[in-house]
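We now fix the convention by which a protein and its fold are recorded. These numbers are not coordinates but entries in a learned vocabulary of local backbone shapes. A record is reproduced here so that you can trace the correspondence yourselves:
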Amino acid sequence: DLIRPETIDDKSIKQYPTSSFGYVIRNKRMLPALVAVPVDAEDVCTIVKYAKKHGLKVVARSGGHQYCGFSNGPRDTVLLKMDNMANMKQYTGDNKIKLASLGAGCKLKNIANQFQTWGVTVPHG
């Protein structure tokens, strides 16, 4: 299983840790072995198969954060940076119920803004 080179984000590997964490914590749990940027489900499948073959864990990140930095993943992890999979679509289901389809890379800010144009809201905080 080959990961397409354009899905690898080498620069992000060292950029994810922030100065709010000490050196030991950054190196222990915030430096993934690989940062991949899939563009579709096929890329995700290929990357997951690659991780399994090489004994790596997989963490999917949609652009947000996790307070303790666990969303970055340690050195035995492939981080899926889901930014390219941020499509949003509204449609009407049975009985005129409004439905939405959200890609894995959608950010809450963008969801809230789009939903507002659709006359819908989602509680968050």
Notes: The chain has a mean pLDDT of 78.
